[in-house]
Structure formats: C-alpha cells, structure tokens
Amino acid sequence: MFVKRLVGAAVAAALAIPLLLGGAAPAQAAPTSVYGIYNSGSVGLGVLQNWRTSGSNYDRILPSGNWTDYNLGWGHAGGVYIGSGYCAARYTSATGQPGTWNPAGSDFRGPNRFRLAGNYFVQIYPYHC
Fold first, then answer.
1. Closest to 5 (Cα-Cα) out of 79, 99, 80, 90
2. Alpha-carbon distance 74 to 69, whole Å?
3. Which residues of 91-113 are buried (b: 16+ CB within 10 A; e: fewer)?
4. How far apart are CA 26 and CA 95, in angstroms?
5. DSSP secondary structure letters along the chain
6. What is the value of pTM for the model shown?
7. Are 64 and 85 a contacting pair, CB within 8 Å?
8. pLDDT at 5
C-alpha cells in the first residue's frame, strides 16, 4: 500500500521536473479525480469512481478503514456521497501516509454527492450531524 501511494507522489514530482530544468512543462488538463479516498469514519461511505451529475448516487460502499485504490482496486476516484443525517470532514495528502493529512475546507453536509478533484489522496470522516 505504501509503494502504491509513493507512485502517485512520484508522478506528480516527475511532472514538475521540466520546470526545474528550465523547460516549459506540457499543458495539462485540470484533474478530474483524486488518487484515492480513505474512509476514516465508523460507517460505510458512498464512493464514485468517476464523477457524474445524474444517475445513481454512488458506485460502491467503502467500508470503514478502507481505501478506494488499495481495497477496491480503483486507479482514481471522482467523488463521495454523504447520506441523510450525516456530515463529513475531509483532509488531503500528497502521499496518503500517516501524519501527512491537512484539513481541506468546510465539511460536507448530506444528503448530496460531492466531487473530488486534485493531485492528492482524500480522507473522509463521516459523522452524524
């Protein structure tokens, strides 16, 4: 699991090398997903592999303590669904390792789908609200 997280960080670093060498970096589209989602809460979390604005609210339920990349085998994740009566704190990390998580904006409030996009891992902590 640690190696897989390092690969994502290595890709981000490799994209920055042309800038350090003085060359222009190739134009890149904005991220449309994240490297992976970690459910740090005590309840299941609805997760979307690819973001969408219609259709089902989630693709799978991610159990407590699980990752979309490691446990579900997804190469990326596009969003989360927070159910009725729940809110969720969110944190981001370039590597997904302990001690590297930073708060990421205001908490999500369900019921709703929330898009996740960036060059990082996201930890979601759902709680009753």
1. 99
2. 5
3. bbbbbbeeebbeebeeebebeeb
4. 23
5. -HHHHHHHHHHHHHHHHHHHTTSPPPP-PPPSSBSEEEE-SSS-EEEESS--SSS-S-SEEE-TT-BTTTTT--S-B-EEEE-TTEEEEEEEESS--TT--EE-SSPEESSEEEE--SSSEEEEEEEE-
6. 0.78
7. no
8. 54
Q: Which residues pair with 81 in a beta bridge?
A: 46, 113
The number of angstroms, rounded, from the C-alpha of 69 to the middle of its chain's C-alpha atoms is 10
Give pLDDT tens digits for 78-94. 999 999 999 999 999 99
> How many whole angstroms separate alpha carbon 61 and alpha carbon 114?
15
The tokens describing 12, both together, are 């981000």
* Identity of the amino acid at 65: G
Cα dihedral 65, 71, 72, 76 sign: positive
Cα–Cα distance for residue pair 52/58, rounded to 1 Å = 9
Please tell me the distance from the alpha carbon of residue 82 to that of residue 25, in angstroms, as a whole number: 37
Tokens of 91: 């944190």
